[in-house]
Amino acid sequence: MNQFDPERLRVFLRNHVTEKLASQGREAPKELGDDCDLLLSGMIDSLGLLELMTAFQEHCGCEIDFDALDPEQMTVVGPLCDFVSSQMARG
Amino acid sequence: MNSEPLESSTIDRQPFIMRRSLWTGFIRSSDTFPERPALSAQGKILTYRELRDLACRIAATIQSHPQYSSTPLTAVFAYRSPVAFAGVLGSLLSGNGYVPLNNTFPLERTRAMLDRSDCRSIVVDAESLPQLQTLLAGIQTSLLILIPEVDECRTLQEQWPIHHFIGLRDFDGTETWREPAASDNSTAYLLFTSGSTGTPKGVVVAQRNVISFVDYMVERYQINENDRLSQTFDMTFDLSAFDMFVCWERGALLCCPSRKALINPGKFMRDMELTIWFSVPSTIAFMKQLGALKRGNYPSLRLSLFCGEPLPVSSAQSWLEAAPNSVLENLYGPTELTIACTLYRWNAASSSRESELGIVPIGYPYPGMSVLVADQNLNEVPPGGEGELLMTGPQMSLGYWKDPEKTAAAFVIPPGKTDIYYRTGDRVRRPVDRGPLTHLGRIDFQVKVMGHRVELGEIEAIVRDATGFDGTVAVGWPPTPSGYGGVEVFVEGTASDPEAVRRSVACRLPDYMVPRRFHFMGQLPRNVNGKFDRKAILNLLEGGL
């Protein structure tokens, strides 16, 4: 299992979101399910989304082309992590 | 014969001859192009005929309830839905101005807007219905409530006997709509902007203000029925009025993305094959980060407009690489001067040279608008000098809703002038010769957060109220090329329950104004005059606090 495995990316995303919420004095939800929409649930805004994408790129050590991701899925935990993982697998 | 200097706008101050209303262009387009698409929203396409039918039924229903007409305004509580747009047109067709309400704002703010507007009628879309229930709990006056997406409202009516609910089945027919009489100062819309005292300010914009703007825009950009315009702005942001009225004036298609689709504007642009794009410049930086500004990505665009915050030169250049067939213009204007009142066309050969501080110039005033760049005493500065931008002309709004004091403070007659000018609070450089105006920043503590105008004083007032601590300083942070990414607050004191403070502040402010962090400190930095030292506070943040 490499570090870009979808499951590991979920852990990374969860930590990132928890950290961001904590810095705003907010508590993260206990569960961050695959169908959780980070935008619609109010956990991140568009600036928060950019921070998350930057964090992913730093974590993966390369640029990720998020333009290819369907906007409906861009802020949903499961599809987002799977997308990043598949981009890394393609090299 | 005409020896009036250009600065004087006596011509514009003549009584305006009302040839038509703001809705006239839409009705004419719906006569000319009844089967062409007028609106794409929530995955639905409405033709001009369909949108007109719904709007006329809304208008006729408002007109047939004259007991709810004590204020000539109708609220539209709807978000990016066909009902939102039909509600705007319906209000205008009934003879009222519209007051946009936003279901993504905290309910308390929405209620304050509704309260202050004195609206007696309101159009609500299905998505805002759950919030309507809570909203009504604080409303004491009887309202006429139109809900086009439900047939009948028996349950709601029983629950709220004080109000009068009407579902689509009981709307009046289009044939009963009567053309309203237009007067000189018929209202187009009442919009609330951030106010420094903690309560939002209502700006009253007249139909003649918007007509003057729209007339120039459709001619300058040669809008036609084959155009497809973006609608990126929420209706609570006055730039949305450009999209709607410029589009419908010439039979074009208005394309409104959902909240989710806005997250990837590039895909929306390609899917809808937009010809005209209009957004805040922040969108460019956002798309750049997403990797969405690849060379030649958006060949369908013939026109790209940006407004609402400073446009960085680098953003303009990146955009044009992705939209090579597009003309790019930077628009500038506060709500009080109706949407935009100066503009600048990007020119690859000369624009970098004309830009200052890496920001694209705001350019030249719209026809009929006069510029005054003035010092603290409102005396004009010499060419090349810096000062506050004041403007007057046909787009100058009527002032603040039921607030003569604030109106008198911002709408002033400068020494030696005879006309009323609006003080924008923006610092600009007065051009030398025929050069463009350049924007240098704000003269007060108003900042731009993701394109939204924010009075830091308003946030401070609300945080003070929530904590009980007077020592409160809000600052924009982190800096972005065109303003700030958000707001952070410093409070002198300790909170026993910081999370409760955050919650209480968050339910009174829209998302972009909610402080991203609260810093409770024993003592805040002060300067020699004993005032809070904003610069020292910013230094703390720069130091990585």
Number of DSSP E strands of chain B: 29
Strand order of the largest sheet of chain B: 4-3-5-6-7
What is the helix fraction of residues of chain B, given as a range? 25-40%
CATH topology name of the domain at 446-542 in chain B: GMP Synthetase, Chain A, domain 3
CATH architecture of chain A: Orthogonal Bundle
Order of helices and strands of chain A: HHHH
Q: What report would you give on this structure?
A:
The complex is a heterodimer of chains A (91) and B (545). With 91 residues, chain A is mainly alpha-helical. Chain A has one domain: ACP-like (Non-ribosomal Peptide Synthetase Peptidyl Carrier Protein, Chain A), CATH 1.10.1200.10. Chain A is built from four helices and no strands. In chain A, helix 1 packs across helix 2 and helix 1 packs across helix 4. The two termini of chain A are 16 Å apart. By secondary structure, chain B is α/β, with parallel strands linked by helices. Chain B contains 16 helices and 29 strands. In chain B, the strands form eight sheets. Chain B has a five-stranded parallel β-sheet, with helices on both faces. Chain B has a five-stranded mixed β-sheet with strand order 12-13-14-15-16, with no helix packed on it. In chain B, strands 17, 18, 20, 21 and 22 form a five-stranded antiparallel β-sheet that branches. In chain B, strand 20 and strand 21 form a beta hairpin. Chains A and B meet through helix 2 and helix 3 of A and helix 9, helix 10 and helix 15 of B.
